[in-house]
Design brief:
- Helix 1 runs parallel beside helix 9 (about 170-180) and helix 11 packs across helix 12.
- This protein has one domain (about 40-335): Glycerol-3-phosphate (1)-acyltransferase (3-Layer(aba) Sandwich).
- By secondary structure, the protein is α/β, with parallel strands linked by helices.
- It has helices at about 5-35, 40-55, 55-70, 75-100, 105-110, 125-130, 145, 150, 170-180, 195-200, 235-245, 275-300, 330-335, and strands at about 115, 135, 160-165, 185-190, 205-210, 220-225, 230, 245-255, 260-265, 310-315, 325.
Length: about 350
């Protein structure tokens, strides 16, 4: 066996040992968090959010620029700081509650989340059961507990969610395991389109977070978000229109006493006013961004403002875009398609 090959084997073995060690440490942390009283976990989450807010200079700067896009220069600095700090709090709570509630059961989920009293007779839920559906959400409130709906509504069709791949394989393995409730299956955004398409085609449900910047090579198109064209995935709209199933916005919003409430919006594929497939695709995607923008403007403290939502821009001039945005040279070709 050659020297270089032996070295590669040793490096792969060392990488595997490191990865397995990381997994073991993460699982141990999860077991500790699951055993702690909920009030301790919330206090720990709030303390971690406070520390992260003060250490994460890049995140604070991205949040400052995003807030300027949404609310203009007139937003007082102290108000912007308060919103950003609360945003960190909601995001950290979303992650740590996912760890604390393992293994997630219906009883645990319902201790934290309220649902509408008439949910069983809701025609939207009935339609989900009969035909499947597309559910769109964002990094608003507790998006992790939103996935936990699967344990409360076990009579729904098979469900798949689309998530960003985490660079660390060990973290990816653990997080995917934590998010898998019953037959809920995760699909990485890169390469997950086929699994999602097959699930919906067979009468299942696809859940997609739609408030991330999506590069043009992955299908992203420019659609208004918080007042500026932002690269957005048209996948939810394409799946709904192609398979003739409803598309519902769904959010898990914080309410009093550290609880959450599941809000389900109307079917965004209705009354499009055009038969042109490209215009229909654009209009449904625009409606998705409009709903999210409305909620974020009304309750800015519950959205993750550190996301670089406007990472690409369609014009060479910076204009109203944040300083972190970069000109997207192939945007003109995509704009002509829609």
């Amino acid at each position: 066996m050659g020297r270089q090959r032996k070295q590669r084997i040793r490096w792969r073995f060392a990488a595997r040992v490191v990865e397995e060690t990381q997994v073991a440490l993460m699982l141990g942390t999860i077991r500790i968090l699951a055993a702690l009283p909920s009030r301790w976990v919330l206090r720990f989450a709030d303390g971690a959010a406070w520390l992260l807010f003060h250490l994460d200079r890049r995140g604070r700067e991205a949040a400052r620029q995003n807030l300027r896009v949404a609310f203009g220069e007139d937003l007082p600095k102290e108000r912007a700081r308060t919103i950003t700090r609360a945003s960190y709090r909601e995001s950290v709570r979303s992650i740590l509650l996912l760890l604390h509630l393992q293994p997630l059961t219906e009883a645990k989920w319902r201790r934290w989340v309220d649902i509408p009293d008439d949910v069983e007779s809701d025609p939207r839920v009935k339609q989900m059961r009969e035909t499947g559906a597309i559910l769109v959400s964002g990094h608003v409130g507790n998006w992790e507990l939103l996935l936990g709906m699967r344990v409360a509504f076990q009579d729904l069709p098979p469900t798949v969610f689309v998530a960003e791949a985490i660079p660390n394989n060990a973290v990816n393995r653990v997080v995917e395991q934590l998010r898998s409730h019953g037959d809920l299956v995760g699909a990485m955004r890169k390469g997950g389109a086929r699994l999602v398409t097959n699930t919906v085609r067979n009468g299942g449900i696809a859940a997609i977070l739609a408030d991330r910047n999506v590069r043009g090579v992955h299908g992203g198109v420019y659609v208004p978000f918080l007042g500026l064209p932002a690269r957005t995935t048209p996948l939810p709209a394409w799946l709904a229109l192609r398979n003739e199933v409803p598309l519902f916005p769904v959010l898990c919003l914080p309410i009093e006493n550290d609880r959450y409430f599941v809000w389900v919006g109307p079917d965004l594929t209705q009354d499009l006013g055009t038969d042109d497939p490209n215009h229909q695709l654009y209009e449904v995607t625009r409606r998705v961004n409009h709903v999210l923008s409305q909620v974020i403007r009304a309750r800015p403290e519950i959205w993750n403002w550190t996301l670089k939502r406007f990472k690409g821009r369609p014009e060479t001039d910076l204009g109203e875009y944040p300083a972190y945005s970069r000109y997207d040279p192939d945007s003109e070709a995509r704009k002509r398609r829609y």
